[in-house]
Amino acid sequence: MLAGLVLASFTLTPERRAPVLAAPTSDDSREARIVPVSRGVIRGLRVYDEPEPAPSSAPTSEATPGVAVEAVPDAQPADTIDPEPEATPDPTPNPTPEPTPQPTARPIARPVAVVTNPTTAWAEAHMLELINASRALGGLVPLSMDIGVADTARAHSAAEARVRYVYHDGPDGTAFSRDVPACATGWYGENTGKIWNDNVDALHREFMAEPWEPINHRTNIMDPNFRRVGVGAVIGADAMYMTMVFCR
Would the pTM count as exceeding 0.70? Predict the structure, then answer.
């Protein structure tokens, strides 16, 4: 049964990072849609008790017959009443210093691993076989599967499945920010597409049928400088989404 394909591929340079976004396409459409992007090299406060205020001096009122007069202590003669000692503030204990929190290293952001199933695991392995068979026909060394890069490819395929279209730069960021850290060399290429009825062969044939130009899927597959690839497949509501990230 024939299957339609939606696909895109590119390799970016830091100087030419113009975002390219493939417009959403109808789920019922079955013709191939390609989004080419120019190819290149990515090279506590302490609290103190306040002392009581010192008694102030005041003149002694004269006694008035029939009126009780309250004596002011400081106004009485010194030889009759001893002045009360000034209140001494209670000592405040020094607060115990809290331990200084030690800085902790921030974890490196990594793509969330997408769980595979037997169908997607087979699709990823079969695509790698098809890629290496085409490279062998061109006299090129086979690519090895990079598990870490495959996690990045799966995360992108999962993001595409949520919006139901393929793209390089879109809701989950840019290919540059995804793939450069994954490859860890500054070099990368990315192919992505939709697959219906698990027809992985049809997607690969579509890639290899493209003309020999440095801006398409075929060029990424046949680049002699690439040595690793991460293939990530995710089953969406309308199709299987597959992303291939090529690394040197």
Answer: no
